[in-house]
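Teaching assistant here, posting this on the class forum so everyone can see the example we discussed in section. The complex has three components, and the goal was to see what a joint structure prediction looks like when all of them are supplied at once.
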Amino acid sequence: MTSTLADGAAVVTGIGIAAPTGLGTSAYWAATLAGESGIRPITRFDATRYPVRVGGEVDGFVAEQHVPSRLLPQTDHSTRLSLAAGAEALAASGLTAQDAPEFGIGIATASSMGGFEFGQRELGHLWALGAQHVSAYQSFAWFYAVNTGQLSIRHGLRGPGTTVVSDQAGGLDALGAARRQIRKGTAAVLAGGVDSALCPLGLAGQLSTGELAASDDPRGAYLPFDRAAAGHVPGEGGAFLILEDPAFAQARGATVHGEIAGYASTFDLFPDGPDADGLLRAARQALADAGLAPFDIDVVFGDASGRPDADRAEAAVLVALFGPNGVPVTAPKSATGRLCAGAGALDVATALLSLRDGVIPPTVHVREVDPGHQIDLVVGEPRRPTGRLRTALVLARGHGGFNAALVVRGPATTAAAPPTSPANPGPSRP
Amino acid sequence: MATRELTIADLTRLLRSAAGEEEGVDLDGDILDTDFATLGYDSLALLETASRLGVEYGVTLTDDDMEAITTPRALLDRVNSTLTRS
Amino acid sequence: MTIRRAVITGLGAVAPGGIGVDAYWKQLTDGQSATGPITLFDPSPYRSRIAAEVDFDPVAAGLGPREIRRMDRATQFAVVAAREALGDSGLESGAAPAERTAVALGTAVGCTTRMEQEYVILSDSGRDWLVDSSYAVRELYSQFVPSSMAVELARLAGAAGPVSVVSDGCTSGLDAVGHAVDLIQEGSADVVVSGGTDAPIAPITLACFDAIKATSPRNDDAEHASRPFDRTRNGLVLGEGAAVLVVEELEHATRRGAHIYAEVSGFATRCNAYHMTGLRADGIEMAEAIRVALEQSALAPDDVDYVNAHGSSTRQNDRHETAAFKRSLGEHARRVAISSIKSMIGHSLGAIGALELVACALAMEHGTIPPTANLREPDPECDLDYVPLVAREQPVDTVLSVGSGFGGFQSAVVLARPDRRFP
């Protein structure tokens, strides 16, 4: 299977979502447009003794409805959510292993902490009860590659498989890895990330970064770009997408939701320093990769750290690219918490839904955008731009200095005529 | 250590909790002489089951046991012969 | 448009039996086993109590007190190996533009040793599900996310291009180098610090490997316990270590007059979509990965001079792999020299693929094939030339290295001379 497109485009033909604001794409999208919040007091364990007691849990997830009985004893919560979102994405695209050449469907997932709740439980079995109490499934259920393996097995995906770990940049990096596989000749790739570390040990780890907001108020804890921004809340969930070679998707008559038009990844050696330019470089490289100029971008899905200095740094990147208040910016993750490896994939899924329906979902809870940021943050209500809404830039940053940027184009213009951007003269001009 | 007997009901409970239940398989039916493979249990599932048997009944199954035992009846016989002796 | 090619210009190794590439290579070519009783902690509760440990003193290895405090053992291994590799390549920090320098580090279990140690403290030895976060060290998060390992290498190398961890179980080391090749070929970087690291010899690893009986219980003969392709093999022997390979764009390396060990001419990985820990007997997915990696290299099976096998010393793997070699290499599978260095340094999970690639590059460099130690009674079902016991002097121009991992990953890397003639 070889792509016929020299520029190596990858189209999206299926979306699957497991998020605190909704399980399943339609429930998630309806709640996101309605500005509903998935941030609530943590219920998975008694969080009252911790300085952070609110988070984004996927509500109403009944594992037995999504995961075969045989897999229940051997899967962490994050793997169960992955199996649900992966199955939804495949079903939505209508793709099965039988539709592709023998090794034609690959898989790329992002992880940050692996199957962490499972891991904590088995560590407890070992240390409190003894070695013979440790589950045989601990040999893989907690490790970082588990979702790649389980999804591959569940759906018979025998193409290239990989797992990328780059903290919260990982969701975009997994989509970038999937597009790379398609460029190298794989027909389709199940790609994305779903993360969950909402167990006591996972929360302790996240607390140690000092980046969580110490607040009990589900509506006031995570306020990205707000004057009152003071950190973020943890969340769980994410999304899986089906990326396909455009010719393959067309030949099987798949519905195309849009295109991964550009992608780049960079690193900041001193992420909190004044010279950190990684996010700006990633955005510029992703735009160049897509053959677009900033002018062509109609909406930005921000990384939205919620830490004042990191928000300021991201706002400066947006101003450098688009000018003050130069493009609508939104952060639907304000309603889910930061999902680590799940965030990038969910933001890309949300961007595609946004482009499909011509509406930008709001950033919730934010009341007073810091005017110093000079960004046009979509707050309170969804916004329906009167002009075009066909191209989105998605940004992500991971703890330690990771950056990634990804450009999606909506379905109307996918595989369309030369771009209008002055930065890209297109093939017809000299 | 335990002096009780391992019944087929105990074993199906252990199997369900250690390895779940394959779709289309009725563990409550007559499964005594059905191969574990036919019941949907691979070697990993049996290792986890054996590990829980060890914890609950104090019976250690050797590598040779694990290779030789292919049905619930064989497993019950092996475990109960140890329990009776102890 | 010219095709950008990826070559290896620097090597570093921290391995059982030898820290540094020279000591490591001597160990391998002497056919010396580095496996023994576990000394890192008391292994008496476990079925398998043996491993290939690195005799590692972080201070002697050049790490400072802050680094030692901040980093898990596996991260320390990686940093030491990376320092050696960067020095070997002549690309110490700042020698190449930061934006064009990348990191692709493989690990299967990340900072598992330190993670477990911190857990024991926070949970009061496992008694508390609601761990006491007030006892947490500042760097706790870094012990939970393996991405912190890539951060350390990026800072060491001054890398501001794409940086990530590749975590594909026991193929992580190969896949990370494969990812490095992708970054070079697509133009995202000119220099990639790649490789693999793991330090899995910890109680939790022993407990779960015991539970699936993956590890050898030959506790009374630890030195000879890892015996790939031998009829009497009975499981893998856990290892630890790190290897770093500096992968560089060919023109970039040539321009600065760098020593080139080999071109990474092909890489492919496939999932078996079969079982998290089991392997199908036919080896079809590994065979496909080998076929594609050779095709990318514009090489035929007959061109392969040496196959570095996964050879984990489990009953299932060694037969699976033998089937895959026969399927992909045809008659040449019976002629080519094949060996498994896991016989000497054990199976270090996400590190081993990179350690094996270092051995492959050195085999090309020195014209010596490291042996499969402890192979005294060949398994009739593993009927190929596994270079038993003694290293073999032989020109090596093309190497195939394969790996197989939990999750179903099957990977193949081909190393070749960059100046070879193309058909």
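For the discussion questions: Chain C touches chain B through seven residues (CB under 8 Å). The two ends of chain C are 20 Å apart (CA to CA). Think about how each of these relates to the inputs above.
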